[in-house]
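Exercise 7.
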Amino acid sequence: AEYMGIQFVIQRHLSCGTVKMSTTASVQTATVSSTYTTSLRFAFGGLSCMAAACVTNPVDVIKIRLQIQGELAAAGAPKVYNGMVRGMWTIISVEGPAALWKGLFPSLLREASYSTLRMGLYEPVKELLGATNPANTPLWKKICAGATAGAVGAGIANPTDLIKVRMQAEAKLPAGTPPRYHGTLDAFKQIYRSEGLAGLYKGVGPTTQRASLLTASQLPAYDHSKHLLLKHQWLQEGRPLHFASSMLAGLVAAAVTSPVDVVKTRIMNQKPGQHLYLNTVDCFAKILRSEGLHGLYKGFIPNWIRLGPHTIVTFIVFEELRKLAGLPPI
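Solution. The predicted structure, written as tokens, is:
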């Protein structure tokens, strides 16, 4: 009987140890799985936006040109670019088709940093705010998560955005005039040499504000409209649903961000020593005074046309990559 009692105690201890080891292993596996899932969200977010940037770069170039055209000039001043389509044709005629791909490399660098962060942070921040059920998450939590993710990404990636804007803004130069920068690396060096580290973060205020507004409108608009369509059974999970939700998200994002996008472009495009605008508020005020409300919506059509396809490509690629990796959809 004593032997049987000892055997029972030993077996009980072994059993408890096995349970403890099994529980610890399960927790470690869950932690690794969670980290892996989060890492994939970040990577797929960046890759999907890089794919979209390759498609929409020509529209981005004409958008930038339209935004700086007639800077602080009175209404009726002569225009080089008359709208998006004719403007693109002007660029092709004067500078060649390759000009529509100006700034592509810094644009890809920007998406690889800024969009990796904003797309990857959106869901973790949303979960921190208490969003446990994607189908029934309040809109305000999605907006707050988007604003936070966008601001963090833009604040860190500002130098790449600055260089992209400056390279895309440069039109054909007179014969013998050297370009502002001989490539992306040269731009980094020149800006740091002539303007210091602060020069690389010129326009970080409006850039962060724009990114915050963009992500707070684009991602929640996609997320919310998608789940509304699913809830009412108008569409099922798949590409048609992703396409419809992306189109709406692109329109909402363009309407919300256009004024601050113009301000961001103007401030970033200033040359060293040039102080047309003191800050975001000053830039808004001067544009309204000199160009009217229309000035804040310069380049709206290309901005929308860029954001529309950009949003569609981004979310379709993002959802497909998640599906391939076995991750749940947004």
